[in-house]
Specification:
Structural class: alpha+beta
Number of strands: 17
Order of helices and strands: HHEEHHEHHHEEEEEHEEHEEEEHEHHHEE
Helix content: 10-25%
Amino acid sequence: MAAASTLSAFLSNCFVSSLLTPNPRNLAAPISLVRTLATTHALKKRRRNSVLSSRGSNRPPVCSSSKSEVVFTDTNHSSNGYPEYNRLLPCPLENGPPRVEHLVVSEGGNVLDYICKALDLPPLFVADLIHFGAVYYALVCPEPPPTATPEQICVYKEVTAPSVLQKRASIKGKTVREAQKTFRITHVNEFVEAGTYLRVHVHPKRFPRCYEIDWKSRIIAVTESYVVLDKPAGTSVGGTTDNIEESCATFASQALGLCTPLKTTHQIDNCTEGCVVLARTKDYCSVFHRKIREKQVKKLYLALVAAPVPVGIITHYMRPVNIAPRIVSGDFIGQWHLCQLEVLECKEVPWPSAATAKSYCLEDCGWLSKRVAYECKINLLTGRTHQVRAQLAACGAPVVGDSMYMPAVIAEKVNPSINPFGRFKNQYTSDDDRSSAIEEWIACHGKEPNIAIGLQACQISWDDGECFYEAGAPWWR
């Protein structure tokens, strides 16, 4: 399975997170980068005509590891300040700080052996990373971001010099941009030639709830073409950039005893529960994507919000920036994406009890009045990432437990003019003032919730209701 990206975007996030994080364990990442990239002077010894091969068909069976088979050690630290690694399972209860390493292969050989030596990691741990989809390669090292050190830039120029690249048979017929696209390493025995770039996500994002769920009980329907799942909150539908193993698709496939893993057809947020359609074949995956594009798929949501919402259609425009939080405006702005939802009903319900909040790791978020909440039934008319959460927050009715959007609503209540896209926004005399105001508004938002928020994809239907499925009662009931 290939995951391509542009040459510097993915590097930029990794470098920035390594350079800016306050955790001392992460400060070693750029140093490690210089150390490992500096070995590329050995490129002259590289093997000729050796190309990194793709062995996706030889990938180990889905969920071949079980929680009881392995031991995770993250208490003792080695001399470089990082934990002494053993295996990725059993899953830790909390995610550790991010650690992403960037390597350029100095001498061709087995990918697992090279990573083990370069990063001083045990073979079983690296094998787990590869199985989790946490290791990527590119034939040519991507361009460093603006935050790169002079040493990193020097190494990049050395390994991408035309005199070096023209001698590599593996990139003949490809442009440099094509050779810089990244792909997952899919097997521990893959060969990597000298000059190959490797990106290793040593701390994949983990999903401990996957091991707590009775997955068979979450299956709503099974057909020859698809499976409908009542997705639990705190899980990923199809996995993340660094973890494709701990996902709904993987665990539902295992629960059903399927030899061919289920495929994702659409997404809902990790913190959201409810109906998700997983395709059993590539063909049906394409069929369902077409139905979504042609607006044949209807989705209804239940949202537990902190304030009442008027019944009717709500329209906003979402900033076309593919990072969270998603910023919306009630006024039309050119190039911004239309967001529409219809509130079908809104009724008063009790605020979740302390026991329920604790059971679902619901975050407090600082909302003052916790006597009553409001349950809204919503018809989603357009499907944007975080759309329901962002639009309801913009109405002053954030989803209960939404630690990303609720803090911004609270901040706007204290200072209504702080939202540059709100009803009481200031008039800015310069683009710099406006940009500063937007950055300040973004900073008012919090982090992504850990487990659950008051949001459920309660119904999904298509083909004019011929295919109709409902989730169980939401967690707050």
